Amino acid sequence: MHNADSTEVIDLANHVDTSRPTMDQRHRIIGAEDSAPTDPGICGKILIGCAWALVVVTFPFSLFVCFKVVQEYERAVIFRLGRLVSGGAKGPGIFFILPCIDNYARVDLRTRTYDVPPQEILTKDSVTVSVDAVVYYRVCNATISVANVANAHQSTRLLAQTTLRNVLGTRPLHEILSDRDAISKTMQVLLDEATESWGIKVERVEIKDVRLPVQLQRAMAAEAEAAREARAKVIAAEGEQKASRALREASEVISDSPAALQLRYLQTLNTISAEKNSTIVFPLPIDIISFFTRPREPTNVPPKESS
């Protein structure tokens, strides 16, 4: 039990919070390259000293103002005299702020779902369709999401709408209906690249529904029905052709063996008797009729005289 607890402590100590920017990531913050070092200056030092004096004078009541708590899925980005505090975002747990000079923004790192409203889109083949989608995204860097964009969530949602319209506008209708996975992956890559500088990670994009005009639905249904009827006629014609060939081969077999016709006749009688019919039709063989229909040679013809 002690070993398991120690292993857990080591894992927590080695855990790296991706929401806290390193020194290499500081240049990603807009305006960071133009700002001076973190030295607050004389006025800043005076204000910070006054803030610490206020904390000491009002102790222990100042503890209720100076100590804040953020949840496991939250981070706090602290600004001291308008500048980012070194060390990146704070949390989870307890963190300390100075009264009057510190201001902090609470950032939620959980995945959010945005239901893109239906967008009227003109496809590449000039067909108007209504498409809606779902975007799953989260804040991957709390400091950048606060410092680089006024409202990261609203910006991501508006960009998702425009990206949906731009991507589907370059695809024909049959690709939109049959290749949704590729369209979703393309949108996810484009959104992720665009929102990287905002500290946003787009995890997944899904196309929910593609609504077609009623007239287009009727035209597509008529086209599909006509195609099915054409295939049915072709299949029926092929079946008739194969059946005729089989009958021809059967007739050749029967003509070679007259007994086969009699056996077939007996099989037909067996099938009729199994259905409990009261009437049985006896077919008259064609050979008998042809025997009576053949012209007979005259018997009383006088012989010819020889010269």
UniProtKB/TrEMBL annotation:
Domain Band positions: 65-224
A GO CC term assigned to this protein in UniProt: plasma membrane
Principal location listed in the UniProt entry: membrane
Highest taxon of source: Eukaryota
N-terminal signal peptide: none
Pfam families assigned to the protein according to its UniProt record, in alphabetical order: Band_7 (PF01145)
Protein's UniProt keywords contain Iron-sulfur: no
The UniProt record lists the keyword Nucleotidyltransferase: no
Membrane-spanning segments: 46-70
Localization, UniProt: Membrane
Keyword field: Membrane, Transmembrane, Transmembrane helix
Record SMART domains: PHB (SM00244)
PANTHER family per UniProt: BAND 7 PROTEIN-RELATED, PODOCIN
Family, per entry: Belongs to the band 7/mec-2 family.
The protein, known as: Band 7 protein
Gene it is expressed from: LOC112680057
